[in-house]
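Bug #77: duplicate submission created two jobs. Keeping one. Sequence:
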Amino acid sequence: MSRFAVTCVFVVMASGAFGQDINQRLPAPVLDSDFPVSEIDLIRLGWFLFFDPILSGNRNIACATCHHPSLGTSDGMSLSMGEGGIGLGPARLPVVGNEPKGRIPRNAPALYNLGAAEFTVMFHDGRVEMDADAPFGIKMPDGVALERALPSALAAQTILPILSADEMAGQGDENPISRAVAAENYRGVAGAWQQLADRVWAIPTYRQGFSALNETAAPLHITDIGRALAGFIAYEYRATDSAFDRFLNGEDQALDDPQKQGMALFYGKANCVSCHAGPFQTDHRFHAIGVPQIGPGKAHSQNPSVDLGRGAVTGLARETHQFRTPSLRNIAYSAPYGHDGAFATLEAMIRHHLDPFAALGSYDRSQAILHEMAGIKDWEVLDTPDDLIDIASGVEIETLDLLDSEISALVAFLQALSDVEHAQGRLGVPTSVPSNLPLDLR
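Kept job's structure:
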């Protein structure tokens, strides 16, 4: 009998109560070969760029502001306050006289394991994905085509928030980047991408580092920045040393009894594995589970407050309100949950899955973790019966009865997916960045 088979003995025994052989549903252990290998010099450049506000139009917000390691590589909020704020997470405040124009419409997703090769779809709606028929093999949002090849969907994803007025670029006429973005001028020598690349190139540490890495003195291109950011994220936020990983690798005692019970439920009676499959607990597909919508949505429909999710990307009515299945690795660190952060706890998220129809109509709005912002219609969709019915009509999952003790066991198993040692990354937060701009610290 193999070591992997030995570790599954408990699961096979437990599955008898549920009438399923969940031994066949457990994933194989994660391997080093599941992740790319990047040069340490590239990772180091990406490390600086991730925390450096130089990539924002007003030089005041970095990737790390909404994806900070101290907040589970997210920001601890249902919906983020981007450009126009100062501080991190729940402590972030509007800048007087330059307040944000709106909330970021979707929850800032965690970054754990996004560098693994199987992650070929990015964003809650999948608007960036590997596609052999697309230019350079990566499908991008309409109007934002790549200029050069990139190695992964993650690398392509990293160069899009810098084009968002609410996230990093700034508003209207505030700066040259925001002006280019407002004019939808992203590409070419005068586009927002190249302007940002030129900014980075003008800083000696970056110029010397990229010149040595690329073995050329040619000016920096935005794809160089995307490669560096993706290389850093893949290295820094790999989370594959959890109790569950150790269990899969033969350490039967790595999980305690409640965690094993939760695992048996996850891969058996509760059938979480129907969507949360594979080594990272995601099928990388899109599903409608009736998550109540808070905040502004993505404004893709006649009603600008209704978020159509995947349906807005594909134009397919059957994919309306569908969102990408998130990975559950380090999920204990990245609350709140759902594509709009509607659920404050893992227990609340699980209970919603048990009966989405009832849960949608009785949503407890106090779960939403939101900054105080004037003029924002956070509850417009939930206060509109037709919109609620529309969200409910697409729900794909069936109702399920679980005991409170079973829900607790599922929570215990989800906590066993935590890579405690690497929850805040490997390199951590730099003490300074090459631009000498101030860091968002916690």
